[in-house]
């Protein structure tokens, strides 16, 4: 306590007498310099003099502090309100409360200006109970803001004695006027909105120039009409992009309307025909216009990375998503694939070793894509290794076949890959089938990499790998295997993939398209045709998915336990085992064949985590539902895993997430 009092005293001294304290410090320094220069007797005399002066200063400050405390104590002792008529004259709302928060006494201004003169006795007694008297006392000179009715106050307090017991004198300063000014300032802050028409290129392919102009003019008219409700500035900066500057109050209203312009544009028809045009919107807030622009661009990139047809709002480090219910815009343009193939070739040629890694529990899309990148690296004369945990892989049949097909030494453990990277050299890490930092098979390996390439087709998430040299991300692609196939096609050195690699890539495409049923575009079939020429066989690829009789029985047992929940079906796997991830994903696929089911979910336990495998045919966006549960994936295929939880708790969380998604869709439909 004495040390604390000394610190307080020193702080007070520095604050109240800065020049005096600075002069004393200079004198101390001079004394030290005298001693260093060798005049010890003079230094000793100066030291004795300083000690005496310092002691005198200390006693003076201490006496001042005690005098101050005595004055405050005298004032507090007088506030026992034995003379309430004197306290009544204090020109601000005031009350005396017990330490539990019960009002013992209040002046007229408190009852009139704070409570409005109409509060009941119960309301008056419990006015400060929720705030807590101790918190008000501890707030010091800062006070605590409170709201009551349509007024705002800042509350201050100090301890007093009332009838021999501790109490608190409460003072309230009305800040309603300043609060209104502050709110007006916040609401008038600028925000930047960037809108882009997603599929202008596809419109030009499908319509004549005059029709394209008419369609774009119609969409622009919709946007301008929608924005006419707000006093904002709009500028068309390119053929498909618009910039809007609006106050935060207007943007908040757009958010409350859940950006219903997305639905208006999606439902737009030309010549009584559905066009299929969509919007992507990025919204950014910030302290400056440049910060607003930066955040708006990041939001728009996130919206486009998640497939378009949605609005993304970035506030500080958080993203909020609206829309995103339609499928990704199919892109028939392969220019990006050719450019990435050229850049990837240069990176591979400039490094010593290539390492490839997928997501945790890699499936056929991740494993097949990894073999495809390894083949490209080999054709360029560079050693390539796939870093994976074989025991947890869902593509063991493909890995086993690779050992007999000339890739025996290609698959290495994560620990070996980390050790090789630590040994130095110019290494390149290629991450396939995921772009999320926490989803990669080894975050340590990712952090060790100085050059990273990301190749993925899943909708963009917040926690993406932001330091990649090449970030090849295409949510319109059916699979990562399709993207790697295009890269191989545009890499001149890769003249022959071989039947094994072609089968692996074909298996990856078949997995993510449900045998060319979902998300299979013209590019998907072109990639399959290329793989066919490279020696792929659909029968061999299909055989990679084969499971034993025990797995077949377990899958049927899961399906038999399924229960319907609204427009979805939920199944729980009671068994545990090494193959449960693959079995449950297959069961989720099978459950979609039930009539009236738009989405299927299979819950199972894997180690210390409870996992959910989600599937749909596109009518329900299972990615959004899984994101509610800290997962992710694609619109028709997603998953999550929750540690330290039970099957029952995860089941309850899943039903809540489904309800939240349905409620969201209902609000969006109602806003149209």
Q: What does it look like?
A:
This protein is an alpha/beta fold and 672 residues long. The chain contains 26 helices and 25 strands. The strands form five sheets. A six-stranded mixed sheet has the order 7-8-6-11-12-13. The chain has a six-stranded parallel sheet with strand order 16-15-14-17-18-19, sandwiched between helices. Helix 13 (289-305) links the parallel strand 11 and strand 12. It starts with a helix and ends with a helix. The mean pLDDT is 82.
Concise synopsis of the structure shown:
The chain is α/β, with parallel strands linked by helices. Helices cover 47% and strands 20% of the residues. It has a six-stranded mixed beta sheet.
Features of the shown structure:
672 residues; alpha/beta; six-stranded parallel β-sheet; 26 helices; globular
What is the average per-residue confidence, as pLDDT, rounded to a whole number? 82
Spatial sequence of strands, sheet with the most strands: 7-8-6-11-12-13
**How many strands?**
25
Secondary structural class: alpha/beta
Distance between the termini: 66 Å
| Helical amount | 40-55%
Radius of gyration, Cα only, in angstroms?
35 Å
- Characterize the biggest β-sheet: 6 strands, mixed
Topology:
Elements: H1 2-16, H2 18-37, H3 40-78, H4 84-87, E1 94-98, E2 103-106, H5 108-114, H6 121-125, H7 133-138, E3 144-148, E4 151-162, E5 165-174, H8 176-187, E6 190-197, H9 200-206, H10 209-227, E7 233-236, E8 241-247, H11 248-256, H12 261-266, E9 269-270, E10 273-274, E11 279-285, H13 289-305, E12 310-315, E13 318-323, H14 335-349, E14 353-357, H15 364-379, E15 384-387, H16 396-403, E16 411-412, H17 414-422, E17 427-432, H18 443-448, E18 452-456, E19 470-473, H19 480-489, H20 499-513, H21 522-533, H22 538-543, H23 549-560, E20 563-565, E21 568-572, H24 580-591, E22 599-606, E23 609-616, H25 622-628, E24 632-633, E25 637-643, H26 647-671
Parallel strand pairs: 11-12, 14-15, 14-17, 15-16, 17-18, 18-19, 21-22
Antiparallel strand pairs: 1-2, 1-5, 3-4, 4-5, 6-8, 6-11, 7-8, 9-10, 12-13, 20-21, 22-23, 23-25, 24-25
Helix pairs in contact: 2-3, 14-19, 15-19, 15-20, 19-20, 19-21, 20-21, 23-24, 25-26
């Amino acid at each position: 306590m004495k040390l604390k009092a000394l610190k307080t005293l020193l702080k007070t001294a520095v604050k109240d007498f800065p020049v005096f304290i600075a002069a004393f410090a200079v004198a101390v320094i001079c004394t030290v310099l005298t001693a260093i220069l060798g005049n010890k007797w003079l230094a000793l005399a100066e030291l004795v003099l300083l000690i005496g002066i310092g002691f005198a200063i200390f006693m003076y400050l201490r006496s001042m502090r005690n005098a101050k405390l005595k004055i405050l104590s005298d004032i507090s002792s007088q506030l026992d309100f034995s003379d309430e008529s004197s306290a009544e004259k204090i020109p601000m709302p005031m009350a005396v409360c017990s330490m539990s928060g019960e009002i013992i006494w209040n002046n007229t201004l408190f009852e009139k200006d704070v409570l409005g003169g109409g509060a009941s006795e119960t309301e008056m007694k419990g006015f400060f109970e929720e705030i807590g008297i101790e918190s008000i006392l501890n707030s010091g000179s800062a006070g605590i803001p409170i709201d009551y009715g349509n007024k705002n106050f800042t509350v201050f307090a100090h301890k007093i004695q009332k009838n021999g017991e501790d109490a608190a004198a409460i003072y309230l300063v009305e800040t309603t006027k300043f609060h209104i000014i502050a709110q007006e300032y916040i609401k008038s802050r600028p925000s930047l909105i960037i809108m882009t028409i997603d599929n202008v290129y596809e419109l030009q392919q499908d319509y004549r120039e005059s029709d394209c102009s008419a369609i774009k003019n119609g969409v622009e008219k919709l946007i301008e009409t929608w924005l006419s409700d707000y006093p904002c500035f709009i500028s068309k900066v390119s053929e498909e992009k618009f910039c809007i500057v609006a106050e935060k109050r207007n943007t908040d209203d757009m958010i409350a309307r859940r950006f219903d312009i997305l639905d208006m544009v999606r439902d737009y028809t030309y010549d009584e025909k559905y066009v299929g045009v969509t919007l992507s919107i990025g919204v950014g807030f910030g302290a400056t216009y440049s910060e607003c622009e930066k955040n708006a661009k990041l939001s728009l990139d996130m919206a486009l990375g998640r497939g378009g047809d949605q609005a993304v709002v970035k506030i500080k480090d958080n993203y909020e998503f609206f829309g995103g219910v339609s499928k990704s815009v199919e892109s028939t343009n392969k220019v990006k694939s050719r450019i990435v193939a050229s850049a990837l070739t240069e990176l591979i040629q400039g490094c010593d070793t290539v390492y490839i890694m997928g997501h945790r529990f890699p499936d056929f899309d991740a494993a097949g894509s990894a073999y495809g990148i390894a083949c490209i690296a080999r054709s360029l004369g560079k050693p390539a290794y796939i870093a994976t945990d074989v025991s947890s892989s869902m593509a063991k049949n493909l890995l086993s076949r690779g050992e007999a097909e000339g890739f025996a030494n290609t698959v290495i453990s994560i620990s070996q890959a980390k050790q090789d990277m630590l040994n130095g050299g110019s290494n390149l890490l290629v991450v396939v089938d995921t772009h999320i930092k926490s989803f990669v098979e080894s975050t340590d390996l990712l952090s060790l990499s100085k050059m990273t390439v990301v190749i993925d087709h899943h909708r963009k998430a917040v926690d993406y790998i932001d330091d990649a040299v090449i970030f090849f991300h295409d949510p319109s692609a059916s699979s990562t295997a399709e993207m790697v196939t295009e890269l191989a096609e545009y890499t001149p050195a890769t003249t022959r993939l071989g039947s094994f690699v072609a089968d692996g890539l074909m298996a990856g495409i078949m997995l993510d398209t449900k045998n060319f049923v979902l998300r299979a575009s013209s590019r998907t079939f072109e990639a399959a045709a290329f793989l066919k020429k490279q020696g792929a066989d659909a029968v061999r690829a299909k055989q990679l998915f084969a499971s034993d009789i025990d797995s077949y029985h377990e899958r049927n047992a899961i399906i038999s336990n399924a229960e319907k929940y609204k427009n979805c079906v939920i199944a729980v796997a009671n068994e545990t085992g090494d193959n449960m991830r693959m079995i449950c994903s297959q069961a989720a696929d099978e459950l979609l064949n039930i009539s009236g089911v738009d989405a299927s979910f299979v819950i199972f336990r894997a180690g210390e985590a409870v996992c959910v495998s989600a599937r749909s045919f596109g009518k329900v966006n299972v990615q959004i539902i899984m994101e509610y549960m800290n997962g992710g994936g694609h619109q028709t295929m997603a998953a999550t895993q929750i540690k330290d939880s039970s099957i029952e708790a995860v089941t309850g969380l899943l039903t809540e997430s489904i309800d939240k998604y349905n409620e969201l869709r209902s609000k969006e439909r109602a806003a149209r």
